[in-house]
């Protein structure tokens, strides 16, 4: 009987053909997510008892579900953030967790820069009004010469900084775990949080989703930002108090925002952020590019194959099994 692998990411066969082929060539049966959304709890429970490996999308793997995973040995995250996986439960149950560190960073960085430009140049509004038969012409804002603050200075923030350098911006970053070598290489100046929030024209969030960072961006911090500043979040929704962001945008505390992630996903249609004109909302798609999917999909497949061949995964979050 073939070992079964569940893939939570969508369009795996289409976008990750090399990864699927690798799994099949090594004797695995691949069970794909057929939906354009994360798997539901009921769908996860349907497969949990028979699968030995998971290429995890954004579906939640909590202790209750994992306790029913009698044959599961490895969860290879289709991405970098792993807040949807109960790592402590995995350690207890002997399940290895790995991530695709650095493999989708370029896609997210490109999206972050794209959202900044879209806000400054009013691209979504111009597109919509032109299609409506209107000829709305308004002044935009140039990114050149602005001060950009990065909340977090990990791989994605570093890739964002590299791309922004071509706009001749001044780059500041705030991170408890500072990488001075990368900062010098990318011409990024370390800043305290107060300076970053109060002086930057753009604040781009690249923090990890941890208990201590949830709700990190709230009204207190938005009020420190300049009224002309904009806020970008391509990291994780729970880092931001959405009600505070809504009020900050509605009342002119900050000028605009662009978010790819939300507290609840898919984002409910009654989320008040969707009613505002000064925000761009996208459906958690920053990491999704053909190139990134091919790299990440192949990595998740390789991690699973390697595990069952007695080799360590590319980047393990839990203690390495071998």
Based on secondary structure, the structural category is alpha/beta
Average predicted local confidence, pLDDT: 96
Q: Assign an overall shape.
A: globular
Number of DSSP E strands: 12
- CATH architecture classification name of the largest domain: 3-Layer(aba) Sandwich
Largest sheet: 7 strands, parallel
- Bin the strand percentage: 15-25%
- Helix run count: 13
Strand order of the largest sheet: 8-7-6-9-10-11-12
Give the CATH level 1 class of the largest domain: Alpha Beta
Indicate the CATH topology of the largest domain: Rossmann fold
- What proportion of the residues is helical, as a percent range? 25-40%
How many domain units?
Answer: 2
Using the CA coordinates, give the radius of gyration: 21 Å
Q: Overview of this structure, please?
A:
The structure is a single chain. This protein has 2 domains: 3-103 and 289-308, Rossmann fold (3-Layer(aba) Sandwich), CATH 3.40.50.720; 105-281, Rossmann fold (3-Layer(aba) Sandwich), CATH 3.40.50. Helices cover 35% and strands 17% of the residues. The protein has 13 helices and 12 strands. The protein has helices at residues 12-15, 17-25, 41-47, 63-66, 87-93, 105-120, 123-131, 155-164, 180-186, 193-199, 219-224, 242-250, 290-308; strands at 3-10, 28-33, 51-56, 74-77, 96-98, 147-151, 170-174, 188-190, 202-205, 230-233, 256-259, 279-281. A 7-stranded parallel beta sheet has the order 8-7-6-9-10-11-12, sandwiched between helices. The chain has a 5-stranded parallel beta sheet with strand order 2-1-3-4-5, with helices on both faces. Helix 2 (17-25) runs parallel beside helix 13 (290-308) and helix 6 (105-120) packs across helix 8. The two termini are 25 Å apart.
